[in-house]
Structures are given as structure tokens and as C-alpha cells.
Amino acid sequence: MILSKLHLENFKRYSSFDIEFGEGLIGIIGKNGSGKSTLFEAILFALYGELRNKKFKEVIRNASASDKDAVVVELDFEFESMAYKVVREFRGKALSANAKLYKNGELSTSGAKEVTTAIIKLTKMSKEAFLHTLFASQKELTSLSTLKNEDRKKMIRKLLGLEKIDFVENELIEKSRELKRDIAASAEFLLGEEELKSKTVLIKETTVIKQAFEKEVKTKSLELETTKKQELHVKQELELFVKTKEQKQKLISELSLIKNSITSNLATQTKLTEELKNLETKAKELKAQSSVKKEYESLSTKLKEQETLKNIQIKKEGLEKEQTQLRAQYTKAKADIATLEEQVKPYETLLGQKKENEALHVKIKTELTGKQTEQKQLQNELSAEQRVVLDTQQKIAKIQSLGRESNCPTCTRQLLDEYDNVIASLNDIVQKTQSQKIDKTKEKLELLTKQIGELELQKEQTQKALHVNETALSLILSKQKDLASAKEHFTKVSEQGKRNKEELDKLAQHAYDEALHVSLQKSFLELKPKYEAVLSLEAELKREQGVREDLALTCKSAEALHVKAKEKETEVSKTLYDEPKHTAKQSEYDELQKQKEKQYSVISELKEKIAKNEGEIKTLQNALENNDIQLKKVQSKKDDLQDYEKIKLSLSEFKTKLNSKIAPRISQIASQMYATITKGKYQYIEVNNDFDFFIYDEGKCYPIERFSGGEIDLANLVLRIAISKTLSELNGASSVGFLAFDEVFGSQDENRRMEILEAFHTIKEQYRQIFLISHEMEIKEMFERVIEL
């Protein structure tokens, strides 16, 4: 893989950035905080959609970008003579992910997860493998020689991915222990040989007893069927007795009802005869009072005529009173309409003023919003620059508190002679940021704040003018509604007055005599009791014909009832019922039922014993079946344990074989480069299976700590490159053609830097691209190509 171009939009500290990498030994130079490491974070992000820290969404978007601005990372690279381009975008407040992968200019894959999968398949490396293979920092190089043996071993095994094998091996050991515990625990619940024989014999004995009970149940069931047949025969005879008894009792009840009806009929005849005599007397009384009804009806007609005239007189008086009120309302409504028409005349003028004020208010508000947005952006920029100053001042304070022995905040190497240069460089960052950015931003903010104050005052004034316009318009609108109501009321009053006048003209022809009305009422009240008595007699006499008819029907009904009673007495005497025989048959039926219940009870007891035996047999069989199941489970766990032991053995052999290949391969690669870099002074670097490092000097083996700092640095460098190449070979990713090193120069002197740079020149033929990141500006002349940030 060769990196070609990188394009960033709103990614971390970069609002917009483009870079072409080129080939050879490439220096990426810039002061602390200039975004050097961010470039390689962007490369990692483009390929795998993640930063080193997976929780990237909180920090990925540029501080000056809004939620609407997209985060875009585009990387062009060459792989196995093919041109590729990967594009990742994050949009919206939630930073929704999207990605595309192009091959030779044509879209190959789309979708964030799909592109990541395609990259892993292409490079044959996961994100972690990519990091460990192609990137190294000064801290990591120094750790190769300074860490304790066990810690260094863990670090290198992690770089090579061997800790995964250790994890699997530990899991296998724990699983084997767990299976052994399970096998031992399961064995305690298995049945012994004697217990198995005992349970088998007991099943046979219980089966024989159950079969005897089943035979007895069959015998008792036959006896029960015989009893049931006898019971059915007796029940049929008993039902015949019951039916005859019920029939006779029914006939006796019917005869009793007929006799009661005859008695009731005689009483009704007597009552109707007396009622008929009374009605004949009242008919004579009604005839004597025939003139009262005619006189009452004549008075009633005259009285209704007087009531009608009285109502007409009351209506005339009401209409005259209403006309007086309507005249007053007519005059007032006319005056109100004239006043309101004068008050609503300024409406159009005020409406025009309101529109002018609204347009001015919108203009001021829009300008104010723009100024406030600009103010917020300046405040964000000021805060960002103040954070840079504060972070740099904290670094200065920390370095000054530790003195010349302190480590560089970027490369972790001791400052020593570079102490003053680092302090001066950091102070220069503080002064330039304060004078060139913070002070100018504050001046802009002061001017902007003054402009915002003036606009807010103008906004308040236009709001007040609008409020005055709206109040006046609201009042006129209210007056317009009052005017409409007044006109409507005026129309109603005029129309009602006309209708009342027409009605009064019609009613003028009617006259009312109050004295005559009172006289007629007095005569009417005196005659009313006599009239009501006549009506009462008439109502009673209407029943006379009905009473005569009822009497005739009652006499006829009495004759029919006497005939029916004689017939029913004959029917009762013909129905024969023997109560003693009925009682004897009932006793016989009750005895058969008791016998049947006793037989049911015996059969039920036998079936309970059979069910109990079946339960015992089932329990014994379940115990034997469970024992077989447990035996199979134990055997299965034994088989699993045997498989795990075989896998453990194979994995141990694989580890031994892998270690025997990895350590010599690292030694071989590192030795070749170290011999070249040191121009043959040191021929061999040994890496044993525990990843301890030794350098051979004149044929003798010495620990790496014996040598000078510069020799150790060069040894660490070639060892790290050897580990990267070995890891690349293990992953099958031989087409990856670049390496990247972060701050490997540290604060070393010029001679040491030249030695390291010469070492990189020596090995650059093996890689088309070698990237060296540094904050030391004075070394930029040492590179074939420089990218300065």
C-alpha cells in the first residue's frame, strides 16, 4: 500500500486540508499542536472508520463547524498496482456514517461497515494489526530496551498478536478443569450395581401384583353390570307408579279449582244484580236535572268570548308600551352610528404605518441575528485559542518544575541541552497566539458587542412603535364591530316598530266589558257543582248495559261449570293408584342403589391400588432411565475433556513452532539492517524465545544495555522495523509499502539525529514510503520531501 493523497473537511482541528504524500523519506514537521499526528489518525479513520479511541464522535467534528456541516475524510492510495479511493462522511447532529470505496475510478463498495470489511479483506489486516505493523512511536521504541523482561515480552507478544493464543490456551485449561469437576460431581449421583439389580426385581414383583388387581377389577365390573340391569328394571316400574300418582293428584286439583269457580260465580251474580238496581235509580235522578247541562254550556261559551277580548286588550296595551321604547332606541341608535362612523375613519392610515414598522422590525431583527451569530463564532475562536495558551502554559510550568531532566511533552525523551529551546518555542506559541489571535479577536468582539447593543435599542424602539400601532388598530377594529352591531340594531328597531303599528291597527276593532266578564264568572262558578254532579251520573249510567251483559254471561258460565265438575268427578274415580305397592317398589330401588354404590367403591379402591403400583413402577423406571442419561452425559464430558487435552497439546506444539520461527526471523531481519546501518561494526542481533535482546560484538554476545545510547536507539529502531515486517508476513500483507514513525528523534543531539536519519536512508529501499513525524523544525533539511504544518 502506497499513500497518494488525503483530503479533510471539518475533521478535528482541520476545517479544510489537502495533502499529496509522494514517495521516499518524508518528513512531517510542525510545532506541538499543529496536527501532525492527526493526519495519521485521519488515514486510520479513512480505512477502518475508527480512531485509536473508538469513542470518536465526541471529538471528530471541528469546533468551529455547525451540526449541519459534514465531516469528510478522503484517502487515495495504491495497492498491488491498483488505484483506490476511500471516502467517509458523517452528517447531522448524530454524525450518521456513510462510506464509499472506489477501484480504478469506479464505485466498488458502499456503506460504512461494508467498506471496512472490504479494506480488511484487501490489506489482510485489522485496525489493530495495521497500527502495530505500520506505526511506531519513540515511546514504543524506547520501551523495547528499557522495560522489564516480563513487560517487554507482553508488549512484543501483543504487537505480534500472540497474546490471543495465550488467551485461548488459558481458556482451554479453565474449561478442562471445569469438565473434571463436572465429571466428579456427576459420578456421585449414579446408581450402584446392587441398586440397579434391586430396582429391576422390584419392577417385576410390582407388575405381578398390579396384574392380579386388574383381574379382580374385571370380575367386580361384571357384578356391577348385573346390578345396573336390575336397577333399571325396578326404576321403570317405579316411574309408572309415580306417573299414575301424579295424574290422580292433578285430576283432584282440577276438580277443586272447578268447585272454587262455581262459588266465585254465585258471588258475582249477587253483586251484579245489586249494582243494576242502583243504576236504575240514578237514571231517574239524571232525568230530573236535564236543564242544568244546557245552561252550563251556554255560560261557558260566553265566558270564553270574554277571555279572548281580555287577552286582546292586554296585547294592545303591551304593543303601545313597546312602541314608546322602540322610538327611544331608534333615536339613540341613529346618534351612536354617526359617532362610530367618525371614530373608524383613521383605520387605513394606521394600517399603513403598521406595515412600515413591521418591515423595519424584520430588517433590524435579521441584522441582529447575523451579528449575534458572528459574535458566537468569535467567542468560540477566542475560547479555542485561550485553551491553546492555557495548555501550553501548563506544559511550560510542568517542564520548569522538573528542570532540564524533564521529558519532552511530545517525544518523551529527556530535554537536557534542548531545555531552553523547548521553553522558548512554547513561550513563542503563547505570545504569538495572544498577540496575533486573542487580542485581535477581542477587538472584533468589542466592536461587534457595541453594534449589537445599537441594533437591540433600535429593535426595542420599533417594537414600541408596533405596539402603539396595534393598540390603535385593535381599538378601531373594536369600534368597527360596534358600528356593525349598532346598524344591525337600528334595522331591527325600525322593522319591529312597523310590525307593531300594523298589529295595533288590526286590534282596534275589538272592545272589552270587564263588568260583564265578572258577572258571567260568578254565575258560572255557582252552576259548576250541579253540572259536575250531572256528568258523574252520566258516567255511571254508561255502565248499565255492560252490567246487564256481564250478569247474563255469569249465569251461563255457572251452568257450564256444574256440568264440568260432574265430568271431572267421574274421571277421578276411574284413575287407580296403589300406594303400598309404590312404597315397596321404592324400597327395592333404594336397596339396589346402595348395592351399586358399594360395588363402585370396591372397584375404585382396586383402581387406586393399580395406579399406586403403576406410579411405583414408573418411579423405578425413571430412576433407571435417569441413570442411563447421566451415564451418557458423563461419557460425553469425558469425550470433551479428551478433545480439549488434544487441542491443548496441539496449541502448545503450535506455540513452540511459532516462537521458533518468529524470534529467528526478527533476529535475521534486524541483523541485516543493523549490520548495514553500523557499516559492518555489529554483524548480529539475537532475539531469543523470551524476546530478550543481545548484540554480538566481535563474536561475543552482550546484553543491549551494555552499549551506548546511540547504538541502543539504532538497535531499537531496527528491532521495531523487524517486528513490523514479521507481523506483515504473518498477516500475509506483503503489499503494504510504507512505515510511519512518530517523534523518533526526540531531543537528541545533532550527531544522534544524523545516525538515525542515515539508518532510515539505508533501509528506505525496502519501503517506497517512510514517514517521520517531528516537532523539531531544524531537521527538515534532512529529508527528501518535507510536509510542513
TrEMBL record:
Residues 5-237 form the Rad50/SbcC-type AAA domain. The keyword Transmembrane helix does not apply. One of its GO terms (biological process) is double-strand break repair. Keywords: Coiled coil. One of its GO terms (molecular function) is ATP hydrolysis activity. Residues 269-343, 375-465, 589-637 form a coiled coil. It holds the Pfam family AAA_23. InterPro entries: P-loop_NTPase, Rad50/SbcC_AAA. The keyword Manganese does not apply. PANTHER family: ABC TRANSPORTER ABCH.3. This is SMC domain protein. It comes from Sulfurospirillum deleyianum (strain ATCC 51133 / DSM 6946 / 5175).
